[in-house]
C-alpha cells in the first residue's frame, strides 16, 4: 500500500529532525535571542488564544505526554536530573515558597499517604538505611554528641509511667520499633545554640512514630497548636 503525501512528509521531517537535532536546536536558540521582544509581544497578544487552545487539547496533550514518557522514561529522567542540577538554587527557592504557601495541605497529604502505604514506607526506609548506613551512623553520632545523659531511660519503664499510651494522642502503643522515645525539649533546639539536650525521665516521653515525626523540632505546646486543625486530639497525658 502506497503512503499518502502527508505521511511521506511526516516521515521525512521526523528523520530529518533526528539527523540534524543539534543544528535545529542551535538555530532555534539564535532565533529566540535575536527576536526576544517580538516573541514576547506575540505571546502577550495571543495569550487568551493560547489558553483556549491548551484547554481544548488538554486530554490529547496529556495522552501524548504519557505515551512519550513511557517510551523515553530514561531520557526524561536524565534531562530532569540535569536541569535540576543546573538550576538547584531556583528549585530550592520555589520549593520553599510552595511549602510555606501550602504547608497544612502538604502535611495532611503526607500523613494520609503514610497511613495508606505504611508497610511500603517501612520497607523503603529499611532499604534506605541499608544503602546509606554510613551516613545514618554519622547522623546518629552527631545526635548522640548533642545529648547529655543524666540518667538511663528505659523504654519499658517509660511506657508503664504513661500507661502504655502515646504522650500526645492517647494511642495504645507497644514496646517495639514503632514506639519512639521523644524529648520534650527537642535536641535540634539545643544543637542550634551549641548546647546539649538533657536525656532523663523528666525530658523524655513515649510517642507513636506518627506523632514523633510530626513534632520534629517543636516544643509540646507548639506541636499541639500546629495540629489543632488536623482532626487529631492531642493532650499531654501522664506528664505531671
The run of helices and strands is HHHHHHHHHHEHEHEEHH
- The CATH topology name of the domain at 132-226 reads DNA Binding (I), subunit A
Task: Please name the CATH architecture of the domain at 132-226.
Answer: Orthogonal Bundle
Ranges where pLDDT stays below 50 over 5 or more residues in a row are none
Number of helices: 14
- Global mean pLDDT: 85
Strand content: 5-15%
Count of distinct strands:
4
Shape summary:
elongated
Question: Any overview of this molecule?
Answer:
The chain is mainly α and 240 residues long. The chain has a domain of 95 residues: Orthogonal Bundle (DNA Binding (I), subunit A), CATH 1.10.30. Helices cover 66% and strands 7% of the residues. The protein is built from 14 helices and 4 strands. The strands form 2 sheets. The chain has a two-stranded parallel ribbon with strand order 1-3. Strands 2-4 form a two-stranded antiparallel ribbon. The longest helix has 15 residues. It is elongated and about 85 Å long. The mean pLDDT is 85.
Provide a concise account of the structure shown.
The protein has 240 residues and is mainly alpha-helical. The protein contains 14 helices and four strands.
